[in-house]
Amino acid sequence: MMIKREILAAAAVSLFVLGGCASNSAKVAKANYKQAVKSTKTVMKNIPDWYIELPKDDIAVFSAGSATSPDLQMSVDVAVMNAKRTLADRLNGKLRSQTKSYLSSVGNSAENVNLLTNIERTSKNLIADTVVSGYTVDKTQIIQEGPRYRVYVLLKYNDARLNVVLNSGQGNAEMLASSSFDELDSSVEGGQ
Q1: Model confidence over 55-85: pLDDT tens digits?
Q2: Per-residue pLDDT reduced to its tens digit, 19-65
Q3: What's residue 163's pLDDT?
Q4: Which of 2, 109, 128, 166 fits as disulfide partner to 173, beta carbons 3.0 to 4.6 Å?
């Protein structure tokens, strides 16, 4: 009888400790969630207007990028690279997308009909070798977020070669795009 009391007492203490741990874990999770929401609100408040709505210009193309890192130079480099990738896409990006839809009804009466649907979507964005040299960094904003730096950059591409890049590389890009689209088609047809 004494052993049963000791076992019951040990079980009660274990449940109390586990309950305290669970309660503490819930408090920590709630505090972490509140901190994440606060950080997100701070990030949203600090986004520059030019990052959300790019400037418009008749003789220039703009592109924005951002990055975070504990190393300031790494943040700048990656933000510029992200903006250059978007710039290349704006200058010479090709998109191919395909959607297939299958609809079938199974059943022999109005009360006993089931519809089976299957929808597949495949997309591929091709940015062929695109010359983006000649851009300038138009604006930069650096924000410290705890131990990290968030960098926003705005690139401006108004090089005299803009029309040349947009028009002269079209034939080569179309040839590259065609082979890539053939690859996409074979992937879709092969179910890969």
Answers
A1: 998 888 999 999 999 999 999 999 999 999 9
A2: 555 567 788 888 888 877 777 777 888 899 999 999 998 888 999 99
A3: 58
A4: 128
Q: Which two tokens stand for residue 92?
A: 């010479």
Long-range pairs, 173-180, Cβ under 8 A, ≥24: 173/92, 173/94, 173/128, 173/130, 174/94, 176/126, 176/128, 176/129, 177/94, 177/96, 177/126, 177/128, 180/94, 180/96, 180/124, 180/126
Tokens encoding 61:
């193309």
Closest Cα partner for 155 from 91, 69, 72? 91
27: its two tokens: 């408090």
Instruction: Write down the pTM of the prediction.
Output: 0.58
CA-to-CA separations, 142 to 46, 63, 121, in angstroms, rounded? 10, 17, 38
For residue 96 the two structure tokens come to: 């191919």
- 57-94+127-190: CATH topology is Alpha-Beta Plaits (3.30.70)
